[in-house]
Amino acid sequence: MIPLTEDRKMLGYEVLASYPDISCFVTTRHGGCSRGNYASFNCTPYTGDDAACVRKNQEILCEGLPQRPKELIIPYQTHGTASLVIDKAFLKSTAEERHAALQGIDALITGEAGCCICISTADCIPILLYDRKHKIVAAVHAGWRGTANHILRRTFDKMQTLFHTDGKDIIACIGPGISLPAFEVGDEVYEAFRENDFPMDYISEWKPETHKYHIDLWAANHLQLLDLGIPSAQVETAGICTFTRHEDFFSARRLGIKSGRILSGIMIKK
Question: What's the domain count of the chain?
């Protein structure tokens, strides 16, 4: 990853840096005004932070981007696999209609320039996709449930159906999230991946000292991207563990659910 601001409150992806029509970012914990478990650069509005602080942080974010978005679109995620296309009909809808449409959504897709689609995470895996042929972007929230239930495949299928996306045209970015050494799981999580035909010898590790499995969400999602026909050279993995680097990135396992979130966003420039 590469710094987008000198104070490193926002990072970007090298694999997308050569595409001038795309703007993307990943926020860190630094550079905002929130306090406590939200300190300091929390831009997500639905986790219990002070609303005025969230608005101020979002303004700081928008001002720091190379091109100011018309708006930040942030779904109300539920660890499911539902996706929503942000189109002209959505943009013309009322605030109440938008709010309802964004409930229970864990992936956003758009071809509308100037609309920055975002995903909130704090140990889960944020994934940004760019179809460079058809100028379509997607932001995907891949926690362990979403990953196990193939949210990437489901999102790609919608992109393919609606926009004729082909895997060979996608640039994919796997953002900061919890690493295999830090992601200790119960048997039910291990079984969820096994039952969905993941290669468990590749994406998991048994720790005899704790009698627990650990899951590699980075590897599990990388495999899914390759299965979609995306060349490995077009996939960038941040390799940043949020649990280990909790001073720089929000980690729900460290701070609890009532805490800040990393915001990952991608936008087609106007």
Answer: 1
